[in-house]
Amino acid sequence: MAVQGSSDVLIDELYETTNRLRQFVEGRLREKGASVARLRALRMLARARQPLRMRDLSDMAGIAARTATAIVDSLERDGLVERVRHPQDRRAFLLRLTDEGVRCHREAEEVDRLALAEATAALDAADREQLRTLLARIRDHTV
Amino acid sequence: MAVQGSSDVLIDELYETTNRLRQFVEGRLREKGASVARLRALRMLARARQPLRMRDLSDMAGIAARTATAIVDSLERDGLVERVRHPQDRRAFLLRLTDEGVRCHREAEEVDRLALAEATAALDAADREQLRTLLARIRDHTV
DNA sequence: GGCATAAGCTGAGCATACTCACTATGTGCT
DNA sequence: AGCACATAGTGAGTATGCTCAGCTTATGCC
Lengths: 143, 143
What we know:
Chain A is mainly α. The first copy, chain A, contains 6 helices and 2 strands. In chain A, a hairpin with a 7-residue loop joins strand 1 and strand 2. The interface between A and B is large, with 52 and 52 residues.
């Protein structure tokens, strides 16, 4: 029974772990004016070689287009990101990090790195790699 | 660089995996009038030997008390749960599953089990156990 | 050129998570 | 008894995720 029941609560544990990890990291990111979702958007924009459209951002982040709109709204309100009309496609925007956005990203990334290192202190490199592998296998089956 | 960067995106992968798994499971639970959060509450109530207070529920589910209020509100609105005044402590409620709630829980539990089995099809028993162990280690460091 | 269809984005509305502040009630100390 | 503090639950407000509907603009086919 214990063996068969071993997967029953897996989603709950995944859910709770994510919730707690998010709160843990967000508590540290807050003072930098960031959050997990906001940092993720900043990271995508910082890493991309080309300016991104809203759609690119939502695809890369694995979130709904509407959710990306909300995130970018808040980033724009705080002066971290700018929407510029796409020169060829008048339906689309191109997203650009402001100087403030670049600074915020850099600081938030460092805070995130430290918080994540703290949260995963009990995992060695092999454990982390194993965890990533297992997560990827779940993602492959939830399309 | 690849090795050092291995933990950088771990939280993003955990985040995205949870989001996708939740949507995957909720798509199947929806027709049963449930959701991941609602099923979790129903499960706690069904498994508890004693009637639970709001506080017991939020503690067991690992969520904020206010969030439990919202979940129970929705379950009560749909006639799945009842709040009964605690006979000794007039501040508290005791939560009781209705017959409809019991039926909903039973059906949702089965749907959840199947959906989870599908999502974790690429993981054998040892993988699942390993995943649970790794998640638990993260939880221990995010209190 | 013109019409049908697709794509980009956002408004509206919901669910689930949080914090903070508040009311009502219990508990414990003097 | 009475005051201080703790606990139970919820209202208010915010963030992040979703879907569906709708407007605007591109695209592709005749």
